[in-house]
Amino acid sequence: MSSRADETRAVRLAVRAVEGLDGVRVRHGTGTAWGWMNVTARLDPSAPPHERTPECWSDRLDRCVCSSMRYHICYPDCARCALASRVRDRVMEAIRIASGRSKYGMDRVKVTICD
């Protein structure tokens, strides 16, 4: 890529083409973190709901914070968590192809799939 703006545009277009997503945000780091890329994507609202265990903290909070996976405990076969994992893998592959980053450059890419 010739510039970060070109890389951002190419990645945004590639990630938008991934099936199962509703919205995409691509940002680069600044200063000493100029090589880092943060990609935030939202799952499609038609995705199945979480299958939460009774210990889930999200039910006690005013907003769903499931994307961080710190506050909720889903059953092992939760369909939404499995879908988010598959979509994240497809997003990472789309970023790798669109940006031309090596596997070492992909270490500086953070992908967050939000609910």
Question: Which class do the helix and strand fractions yield?
Answer: alpha+beta
What order do the strands of the largest sheet run in, or round the barrel if closed? 1-2-3
Strand content: 15-25%
Q: What are the secondary-structure elements, in order, as H or E?
A: HEEHE
Question: What is the helical fraction, as a range of percent?
Answer: 25-40%
Topology:
Blueprint: H1 4-16, E1 21-28, E2 37-43, H2 79-99, E3 109-114
Parallel strand pairs: 2-3
Antiparallel strand pairs: 1-2
Helix pairs in contact: 1-2
Mind explaining what this structure looks like?
The chain is α+β, with helices and mostly antiparallel strands. It is 30% helix and 18% strand. It has two helices and three strands, in the order αββαβ. It has helices at 4-16, 79-99; strands at residues 21-28, 37-43, 109-114. It has a three-stranded mixed beta sheet, covered by helices on one side. Helix 1 runs antiparallel to helix 2 (79-99). It starts with a helix and ends with a strand.
Features:
single chain; 115 residues; alpha+beta; 3-stranded mixed β-sheet; 2 helices; elongated
